[in-house]
Amino acid sequence: MVYESYVRLGTFIPTKLVLKRATRHVRRMGQHLRTWIEKHHRKE
After folding, report:
1. Around 35, how many Cα atoms within 13 Å sit in the side-chain half-sphere?
2. Which residue among 18, 33, 39, 41 has the highest number of C-beta atoms inside a 10 angstrom radius?
3. Which of 1, 42, 44, 5 is nearest to 22 (CA)?
C-alpha cells in the first residue's frame, strides 16, 4: 500500500505531524481494504 502526500515537509507544517497523520491514514486504508476483501472473498 502506498500513501503519497504532496505537502512540503518542514515548511509550514511540522514533519512529525505529517508523518503521524499519514500513518493514521494508511492504517485506516488498510482496515477498509481488509474489510472489503473479507466481505467480497468467495470461499471455494
Report:
1. 6
2. 18
3. 5
H-helix segments, 1-44: 15-40
Higher pLDDT residue, 4 or 31? 31
C-alpha cell at 15: 514533519
- pLDDT number for residue 33: 92
* Per-residue pLDDT, 18: 81
Give CA separation, 17 vs 5, 20, 24, in Å.
Answer: 12, 5, 11
CA separation for the pair 12, 22 (Å, rounded): 16
